[in-house]
Specification:
The chain is mostly helical. It has 11 helices and no strands. α1 packs across α11 and α6 packs across α11. It is globular, with a radius of gyration of 16 Å.
């Protein structure tokens, strides 16, 4: 990976972590997902699931290690169900939250895929997921389901244009649509960071 790209991603990760509002340990414990013990202990994992598990274990997720296999399985299943590249989803997670499950951005986006509460509530309502307020986004299983659904919807909205969909994921579709309508260029930093993170994922697997 190019040194400058790596430095940019590292700086963004530090900036992201520095800007997080951290929950108390007691509150975090209440937000952990209710995962069936059998799912946690399943020894058989597909290669893609094992790669995701290694990714999760390489970051401070704020979650118990016993939860990570089920989360890895969910990420792969949700990505495949929505025809998304698993490495792309991981790159978005890396840039958005540095893999920290309890990340909260200065504007209120929450969880692994940094979903805004209003967006999360709308997605949950439309797709039949239980919603019990913004802290529902700290459930990593729900966060991944909603985040991958949202990314798929944006890709469909922008006719498969991944750069525009990623810009909308970061800036919001309304903001991106207004820029497009006025002939302005889309913000490039986020796109470069996701692309560099994706290249890093591919390099690690090769």
């Amino acid at each position: 990976m190019r040194p400058l790209a790596f430095a940019a991603i590292s700086l963004l990760s530090l900036a992201t972590l520095a800007s997080l509002w951290l929950t108390t340990p007691q509150a975090a414990a209440q937000m952990l997902p209710d995962i069936e013990p059998a799912a946690l202990q399943t020894p058989q994992m597909a290669p893609a699931e094992r790669q995701v598990l290694r990714f999760l274990r390489s970051y401070h997720t704020g979650l118990a290690d016993r939860q990570l296999p089920a989360i890895a399985k969910t990420l792969v299943a949700e990505a495949e169900h929505r025809a998304l590249d698993v490495d792309l989803v991981l790159a978005v997670i890396f840039v958005e939250s540095s893999g920290y499950n309890f990340a909260v951005s200065p504007v209120g986006a929450r969880g692994l895929m940094q979903i805004m509460p209003n967006t999360g509530q709308d997605l949950a309502r439309r797709h039949g997921h239980r919603w019990h307020g913004p802290d529902a986004l700290f459930d990593p299983i729900l966060n991944l389901k909603l985040g991958t659904t949202y990314l798929r919807e944006l890709l469909d909205h922008y006719d498969g244009d991944i750069e525009t969909a990623l810009a909308a994921y970061n800036w919001g579709p309304g903001h991106v649509d207004r820029r497009i309508a006025s002939g302005q260029r889309l913000p490039r930093l986020y796109l470069r960071l996701v692309r560099d993170a994706l290249e890093q994922r591919i390099d690690q697997r090769s």
